[in-house]
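User: I'll paste a sequence; please echo it back and then give the predicted structure.

Assistant: Echoing your sequence first, then the prediction.
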Amino acid sequence: MLSSQFFNRPSEIVAKDLVGKVIRRKYKNFWLASAIVETEAYGADKASHSYLGRTPSRESMWAPPGTIYMYMSQGGDSFNISVKGDGHAVLIKGGRPWIDTTSDQVALETMHKLNPGTKGQRLDYKLLAGQSLFARALNLKVKEWDGKPFDREHLYIEDVGYQPNSIIQCRRLGIPDHRDADLMLRYVDEAHVRSATQNPLSRRNWKEGSDYQRLSWNDCH
């Protein structure tokens, strides 16, 4: 289980380092699990919720590093984690199913039931491809988890030893131009870009160096 010290770092560092980590959620008798594929960092910039002011619904952004901050987006529940800095946080944008001895095939089937597609069962690699899909497949709800800490009995993130060979760094999604849309604070595991909300490598006219860049594991640490 990642300690609070892991999160007591700048948002862009934590966002990069979370890519490849595994989140586990106890649901009934199963441990639902996802490897984190996509994150976004929010610090002292205009795109952050905290820039709009401190309110009861955003209070978790000012909580100790490692506190869960959840809110309702247009698509549904969204899962964030507070980090170092007042009002700073990391948004978990997308993931992919993780199966091992703790989280088995039955757990994956449970995730599919929690997050069914409109035209039948979603493909595994698309099951958590987006912040609302991620929260839905893991049954993470604002009313249950906002303001709570991680704990090993119910919900935690761990390092399972997976290290992405390459992380794509690019601009965050859905940010208006006047709210720091140009900041390159989105991070995606290149080996699993198809499990991201949008594949940054398939965007028309995007060029490496100007629209995105590749980071090695060493670049992120």
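The first strand starts at residue 22 and ends at 27. The mean pLDDT is 94.
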